[in-house]
Amino acid sequence: MGLAASAALVRVGLPGAFAARVDKTAEFLANGEFNWFPERSPSGPVVVIVSIPDQVVHVYRNGIRIAASTCSTGKAGHETPTGVFKILEKDKDHKSSTYNDAPMPNMNRLTWSGVALHAGNLPGYPASHGCVRLPMGFSALLFSITKVGMTVVIADEDSQPSSVVHPGMVLGDYGKKAFGAVDASIKRHEYSEGRTEKATTTSIVVSGRDRSLTLWENGRITATGKVDIANPKKPIGSHLYTLTGVDENNAQLTWTSMAYSSKDRASDTEALQRIKAYPDILKKVQKAMRQGMTLVTTDDSSNSGNRSADNFTIFSGVGLY
Q1: Which of 36-45, 66-75, 86-95 is predicted least confidently?
Q2: Taking a C-beta distance cutoff of 8 angstroms, is the pair 287, 185 a contact?
Q3: Catalytic residue among 58, 118, 166, 239
Q4: I need a labelling partner for 2 at 20 to 30 A (CA). Which of 31, 83, 141, 283 fits?
């Protein structure tokens, strides 16, 4: 789908509402416009970030932004929840069971309570009942690269991912022996990708307050354990990391990182280096490591009923953190 000299307009939603694919950067998109540059990073783990203040959706692959689009999030009284979510379900021709079978094309479900990414009318301001409405053309392109279990971040501030290179194994011994175990696990999972009926999605949540680690696989907790945190009085910060690369020559892992809260923010690299998992949980984490997995750090409690001060949730719909 090459870009024309003047972008074609695509009707979506109510009469008079248009969407246009344009050759502009995210910062200069007008309402209804989007860009799409997949060639900038042809492969690798995908993370979608929704900025509520900017009403813009950013798509990153291997830490490189390949697309951006204007959007419409929840209106007053139906605010879109902020948090780290996993795509629970995909349906190209979905219809709402709550709002009179209203069409929700290219739907990526984030919560079972009804929050999703889908095509819809974009009036230029928050107007939905909680979902993230997208231009039709953009929603179709996004639907083509999303996967169940993929990470979507809905943030109430402007957050830009950065690259973090970490020596050896994260959350433990940083020697080459530990890296070898992780590397073998990643290769094993890569080999099985596409050869099994359903790929496993993996996430790790580290709580600074509880000094705990929770391992999630396919939306359920499969292991818990303790961690030591160097300089424990200092916050580890609120970060989301996605494993994007493995450098066998230098025994390093590459992560795409973003801070999802300005509260008690620590540097991305420092937070990883201060966390060390106990041996029993570390072995389970090593076996679960794979490309595209996510690691979330937080200074809040790991109590299952906990929400942070700004109502930021993690994995809502597959279990509330």
Answers
A1: 86-95
A2: yes
A3: 118
A4: 31
At residue 15, does pLDDT exceed 60? no
Two structure tokens written together for 204: 């790790």
Pairing outcome for strands 132-134 and 116-119? parallel
User: Which letter does DSSP use for residue 196 in this model?
Assistant: S
Please give the full DSSP string across 21-70, using - where no structure is assigned.
E-S--GGGPPTTEEEE-GGGS-SS-EEEEEETTTTEEEEEETTEEEEEEE
DSSP 149-161: T-EEEEESS----
pLDDT tens by residue, 211-264: 999 998 877 789 999 999 989 888 888 888 888 878 788 778 888 887 776 555
| Domains of the chain, earliest start first | 9-155 (2.40.440.10), 162-302 (2.40.440)
DSSP 8-state assignment for residue 287: H
Question: pLDDT band at residue 316, thresholds of 50, 70 and 90?
Answer: low
| Nearest Cα residue to 47 out of 258, 247, 280 | 258
Active-site option among 58, 71, 94, 131? 131
pTM of the model: 0.76
Give the integer Cα–Cα distance in Å for 95 and 97.
6
Q: Does 71 qualify as catalytic in the annotation?
A: no
Task: Judge whether 118 counts as a catalytic residue.
Answer: yes
Distance CA 109, CA 87 (A): 6
